[in-house]
Amino acid sequence: MPLSNHSTTVNEAQLRAWLSEKAREFGFDGLRIADTQLGQASERLQAWLSEGRHGHMEYMQRHADLRSNPQLLVPGSGRVISVMMNYLPPDANFDSEWQRLEEPEQAVISLYARGRDYHKVLRQRMQAFATEIEKKIGPFGYRVFTDSAPLMEVELARKAGLGWRGRHTLLINRESGSTFFLGEILVDIPLPIDAPQEEHCGTCQSCIDVCPTKAITAPYQLDARRCISYLTIENPDIIPTEFRAAMGNRIYGCDDCQLICPWNKFAKRTDLPDFAQRHGLGQASLLHLWSWTEAEFEQRHEGSAIRRIGYHRWRRNLAVAMGNALASTKVPDQDKELMRKALQESLPSADSLVAEHITWALGCAV
After folding, report:
1. Alpha carbon distance 269, 271 (integer Å)
2. CA 358 to CA 337: how far, in whole Å?
3. DSSP element (H, E) containing 85
4. What does each of the 366 residues of the chain score in pLDDT, given as a tens digit?
């Protein structure tokens, strides 16, 4: 059927094939299409929010109605074009990541955050992609999203067939594992929709078993308040003492549930320089990162997703990791002494948030 109100020469099937080809030209590793009806996912969101599992992420509660109905974001939209982009740099190695977690004096930053901010990378490419669609069919109603608005992007991508929900709640793709970013374009074009993928987790629950803080409380159930990614990134306050030891040396995010996932043996590497690690973040020690001044933090994290947590949360996270290092028998005494001295010297000038965590860290010394 020809595209109503958009074209009399390009039909839906032809445009669908063109979209996939053009998406590859813009560096996307997959494109699928769904309608905007969320069904029971909206009810599950409301239940999750009513239980308070979103923690300090008030924006999720504040915009729950928009999350439940994408058409409120783009009136007249009936389709979502979901795209994926792999982010693992060529030198990423899961075995090495596990090894770093066993080296308490080293700093561990989630793989996705070691390069350029994915919001910037995807948004620029998706906007250019949407412009190309407009050139193809003429003006149409649309809006581009890259984890930047109240949209249930994982659920829409699941519905479109980019993957299935793993038991850790992340999306898993047969060919790419789970190490990819998502982006969306809500459109008012009556495109043909794709079918969802079947689930392929079987009886595996490795992600549940490996979670350091037991944040995955049951299959497909995540309590964000316990999740290290939430605690180190979204949480603006004191990190509860009950979770500090379990954080280990993770100072920004946590990859454990992805590192353990059998499907990530298929994780695809990217050749995009944007996602290559910057400033040695994959090899940095806690002491080295603690030595950064606020000006150095701002300058070195320019264009990075890490910058948005700010210098004080960065220091808060580092202080917890240094406390865990001071409590470890794996760290040489001379390294512990350097950490202890660095923490003590910083305490007088620290704000109340960081000071509380420094004091705790100093109390961990053995």
Report:
1. 7
2. 14
3. strand 79-86
4. 333 455 444 677 889 999 999 999 999 999 999 999 887 666 676 665 667 666 666 555 555 555 567 877 788 899 999 999 999 998 899 999 999 999 999 999 999 999 999 999 999 999 999 999 999 999 999 999 988 777 789 999 999 999 999 999 999 999 999 999 999 999 999 999 999 999 999 999 999 999 999 999 999 999 999 999 999 999 999 999 999 999 999 999 999 999 999 999 999 999 899 999 999 999 999 999 999 999 999 999 999 999 999 999 999 999 999 999 999 999 999 999 999 999 999 999 999 999 999 999 999 987
Report the C-alpha gap between 154 and 93 in whole angstroms: 25
DSSP 55-122: TT-HHHHHTHHHHH-GGGTSTT--EEEEEEEE-B-TT--HHHHHHHHT-TTB-EE-GGGSSS-HHHHH
Query: How does DSSP classify residue 235?
Result: -
Q: For the chain, what's the residue count? A: 366
> Contact 105/335 with Cβ under 8 angstroms?
yes
* Exposed/middle/buried for residue 99 (C-beta within 10 Å: 0-12, 13-18, 19+): exposed
Among 219, 91, 240, which Cα is nearest to 228's? 240
Catalytic sites, residue numbers: 147
248/321 Cα distance (integer angstroms): 6
Q: Which residues does residue 145 pair with via DSSP β-bridges, in sequence order?
A: 184
Could you tell me if 32 and 194 are in contact, meaning their C-beta atoms sit under 8 angstroms apart? yes
CA distances from 185 to 33, 68, 141, 147, 319 (A): 10, 16, 10, 11, 40
Q: How far apart are CA 49 and CA 44, in angstroms?
A: 9
- Measured distance CA(333)–CA(175) in Å, rounded: 46
Beta carbons of 167 and 220 less than 8 angstroms apart: yes
> Global pTM?
0.92
Contacts of 306 (CB under 8 A, 6+ apart): 109, 113, 252, 314
